[in-house]
Model the fold of this input.
Amino acid sequence: MLGRLTFEAFLHEPSQNFAVLMMTLSGLAILGWITYLRKWKYLWDEWFTSVDPKRIGIMYIVVALLMFMKGFADALMMRLQQAFASGDVSGILSAGHFQEVFSAHGTTMIFFVGMGVVFGLMNLIVPLQIGARDVAFPFLNTVGFWLFAGAANLTVISLAIGHFSTAGWLAYAPLSGLEYNPGEGVDYWIWMVQIAGVGSTLSGINFLVTILKMRCPGMTFMKMPIFVWSALCSMVLVVFAFPILTATLVMLTMDRYLGMHFFTAGGGGNPMLYINLIWAWGHPEVYILILPAFGIFSEVVPTFSEKRLFGYTSMVWALILIAFLSFIVWLHHFFTMGASPLVNAFFAVMTMLIAIPTGVKIFNWLFTKFRGRVHFTSPMLWFFAFVLNFSVGGMTGILLSSPPVDFQVHNSLFLIAHFHGMVIGGLLFGFFAGFTYWFPKFTGFFLDEQLNRYAFWCWLTGFLLAFMPLYMLGFMGATRRLDHYEAATGWQPLFVIVAIGAVLILIGALIQFFGLFWSIRNRKKLWAGSDPWNGRTLEWAIPSPPPIYNFAIVPTVDQLDPLWAMKRGQLNLFNQPYEDIHLPKNTPIGLMIGFLSMTFGFAMTWHIYWLALLSFLAIIACIVIRCSGKDEHAIIPAAEVKKMEAAYKS
Amino acid sequence: MSDSLTIHHTREPFPDTSVPDPHQDIFSKTTLGFWMYLMTDCLVFATLFVTYAVLRHNTFGGPDSRTLLELPTAFIETLILLTSSLTSGLGLLAAKRSHRTALLGWFALTFVLGASFVAIEMHEFTQFVHAGHSWTRSAFLSSFFTLVGTHGAHVTSGLIWMCIMMGQVFFHGITVANFRRLVLFNMFWHFLDVVWIFIFTYVYLIGVL
Done:
């Protein structure tokens, strides 16, 4: 009846039991609070069933921030373990639990935090920047989000019921095969990644069509804001890369569930094939995450330098080139596999080539500031920190791209320091800059600037303390995923510094969460108006927060930075009459599909086949029901739109 | 597609752009989106093909493609599937002329052809398994069953889709939305043909000859 699910699945180590208890209690507290405030109907009508990309974007970011707490708790546990577990001290975590923690940390941060903030910001910004009222497929958008949320929930469930994978965030074969990992952990991993991945593919298609088809009149490709360009390139990568992940996971599933021999050590299987396939997706994936961050900085820097972006065309081509090159460098993740020198040399050269377009971008941002009027707001502070960390991380990346060097530091903490420099210093700092920059657009008020600055300095010093010593440790021979090391190595002082850095980052993150609540509390004092930063692009031309239809009149543009042109009187953006606006109606089916996917993944993990079949059939039924209905739209008549606009203006 | 802006902002007589808002040009958006979905699916198949290419000689003492596969069966399957593409295309032409009965007839024929394709494939698979050549035997057989089976699963889901669509056409007639779905279905069905031609060539022809 319950497959392999037994009472033992609920038994864990004391530390994990405590975490599960706290999680359950805080979850219940939140549910109780919502019930007490009688907000369920509001949440259901306005958020859970919403097909408005602005709402979906905010929900993406909320889920991503919640998952960030979980992923960050994992990171803290690892760093504290390593600070103490030297010589005779065994530390707070057992070796097995430590493996679960590092697997969960990577999976959570990449799939649920990284992808969450990327899709969240794109949902918020892309339709506004291209002058559209919606995305191309609003229903697909909710399905994509709820698949993402369902998969994220499955991660949280795995904390309480059973164990998470111990095979690392990419579940390398043959370690992830049935022979070496017979438990439920890898199955949890497979299903959460598979569900989230399918959601990402659907959202990728959606945004690609949105950008290709729904730009406002006059916005040709070379007049698109750079953030939209970065989203376009990133989504092209999603559409090209995620199917590879899907197919690879299907094959791993077949190995584990049907006893096939794709990646097994015996039976003629080829484990290195798995490593190749997973990185053929995995390398583009890191560019999927970083390209939107480039886009964000390309919006932030010109606005706060009061100057047009330097070298727009070269910026666009750099994005395209990076997107292209990202597909022919995957082998640099395993130079040590033993491919011929010629093969390694090809991938090394391709990897080094990426430094050129990336360097072009860095210089373009710097030249944008040159002789501009630079405002030292917190988004710009994140930008400065980004340039520092990203350049250091990029240059160590170039070191790693050389096979002889890579043979020395492969799988060492040097590598960890490198890619955290890219992901934290690049994506996360970019997200913070974008979050601060666009926050007033969607709420109407600023984030508290002073608290932002405190958080920034904690993050920056914390980051440097937490990751610079890792470069040294890597050179000293410390490998990744160490739960214990000998005292004679002399690494402990550096690991202690690293742990202090992690705690500083924690303080920074806490200040940010506090700042969010503080700003919401004091929103009247922090009121921003529709265009607080002297914006250049279309999103600042409409009220903040934007009306449900975004643009009462679809704008017409003829150049880059159309809002600046309008402010100078060179362009009349809204030269059309008011018209009836069609908006899609809310639907709960996206939520239902997400929930059913979660139960499907859970049932498959525990081999509860009747539940899996039931969930699968229910998903099909949901899709059929949705497709059998008429295209559901609500109409806001032109007169109503005019009235609403007048209310916004006054 | 020449210029997305003109398609999107002029009121071309597409079936459902009679609504005043140009953002409601569902037809061109949906066909483009579906085309992209097909390309992602194409990449799934590409990955499976690559895997098959890497693993096809890893027979681990079991049968290889030369001793296992039979060309005549695969050839008959090919003929059936290609014919079904023709009939589904004729069905779409009937829909364009608003001939509901002809449309349903062509689609019924397509369904029969598709179902017999799946039946032959199932028969082939069962034979292999009964002879002791199941997917657990070797990496070659794992990749064979997965590649060909994934295509078969696509055809099966196409059959289910066809049933639902015939029901929709039967009850609601050839509405704007139904016509759009017929177009998408045809794209899907032809795409499966293309994939099958690659499977026939690479797995069967090259595997046997």
Summary: Confidence is low (pLDDT under 50) at residues 1-23 of chain B.
